[in-house]
């Protein structure tokens, strides 16, 4: 659905591309997998535009707001282990 709307188009025409993709998602009620795919394509297009222009992405999005940001890391995901061996693994991972 989205591929034909992008192929051969200029990545620098961001808003026009996004609007065309968004309109193409209408038959799927703009939710679920279609909206997730649109989000991924939108992020990739921002990245492509920044690379084409030789700019940091933050400059295209209004400029740097701070020098450092707090890091976020996810973890402690379920593992298929007996609880007796799982708890120590999760505690070790949390400490790391």
Cα gyration radius (Å): 20 Å
| Global shape | flat
Low-confidence stretches: none
**Overall pLDDT confidence:** 89
- The class by helix and strand makeup works out as mainly alpha
What string gives the helices and strands in order?
Answer: HHHHH
Separation, N- and C-terminal Cα atoms? 43 Å
Q: How many β-strands, per DSSP?
A: 0
Oligomer: single chain
Q: How many H/I helical runs?
A: 5
Describe the sheet with the most strands: none
Features:
5 helices; mainly alpha; 56% helix
Q: In a nutshell, what does this entry contain?
A:
This protein has 5 helices and no strands. By secondary structure, the chain is mostly helical.
How would you characterize this protein structure?
With 96 residues, this protein is an all-alpha fold. The protein is built from 5 helices and no strands. It has helices at residues 3-6, 14-24, 32-53, 57-60, 83-95. The longest helix has 22 residues, at 32-53. It starts with a helix and ends with a helix. The mean pLDDT is 89.
Outline the fold blueprint.
Blueprint: H1 3-6, H2 14-24, H3 32-53, H4 57-60, H5 83-95
Helix pairs in contact: 2-3
